[in-house]
Specification:
It is found in: Cytoplasm. Its main location: cytoplasm. This is Zinc-type alcohol dehydrogenase-like protein. Homotetramer. With about 350 residues, this protein is an alpha/beta fold. The protein has two domains: about 180 residues, Medium-chain alcohol dehydrogenases, catalytic domain (Quinone Oxidoreductase, Chain A, domain 1, Alpha-Beta Complex), CATH 3.90.180.10; about 140 residues, NAD(P)-binding Rossmann-like Domain (Rossmann fold, 3-Layer(aba) Sandwich).
Amino acid sequence: MTPFMRAVGLTHYLPITREDSLMDIEVEKPGAPAGRDILVKVEAISVNPIDTKQRAPKDKVESTPRILGWDASGTVEAVGPACELLQPGDRVYYSGSVTRQGCNSEYQLVDERIAARMPASLNYAEAAALPLTSVTAWEALHDRLHIAIDKAANAGKTILVVGAAGGVGSIAMQLAKLAGLTVIGSASRASSKSWAIDHGADHIINHHKPWMPQLEAIGLRFVDYILCTNATTAHFLSMAEAIAPQGAICSIVDTTEPVPLHLLKSKSVTFVWEFMFTRSMFETADMIEQHRILSEVSQLVDEGALWSTLNERLSPINAANLRAAHAKLESGTMIGKLVIEDWQ
């Protein structure tokens, strides 16, 4: 008899106000893992903008239900014959790959090279808030912007995190502080300003107002690095103005129309993208770096140097709660991370 599991999936790409945009379903439980795959019993999941973008209305129809979700924590139930890093019983956290079925299911297969043991000091919900944002922030700062981890190398350097109270911004500010940078966070609401300060911002500017007068008011002419986690197109002119000569800008958000890249030429500014699924999508030779990043994050959390950005919890994991989570993200008011836990 084929074993089945509970999941939340879709066949049509619909507005989140539709009850059939995300549906409670039963699907076959994955079989024994092959190669370097691990089979994880999912305990908690988090929702990110990638979920809402993947679910966004389009004409495509799935012949079999598609399962979304790219942030999870759980317990390893079985491992493939080539696994070297993890074993049954390990408590793990990971983001998975957009080319495979997601984590909105009771069990999931994931490559061990993009998973790691979760922080021992956290519960499943706290851990599920971390993988996607931590890997994104780490890669953005250290792989794309080439910011050194050594504090001494960053003495006197500054970074502006645009959208500081979001999931990635909340982690990026903490990592930037650990690297010795002066951190300026952008936020426009009292609640998001307070959150950003609590998560590492030394200064706050309002990204809806002219940036340069605000930077000058805190004694800065330019900033050395910019990490844009919100509205790349809308902020591009301000970023071009605020970035230091020979500085670097990294964005994680798609442009919605062409931007005047030539404005960066006179300053010899680097502009680079960060997409944390690149390594898993293309199975790059350095794919295992995400295991190493998550392992380092676990250590930092357990040492008290980095903390979870969990801000809202829902239970149980079902279609109704996932629709509510998608709606919250699409409203643009989310601060930190939203986690859904437990199957009931």
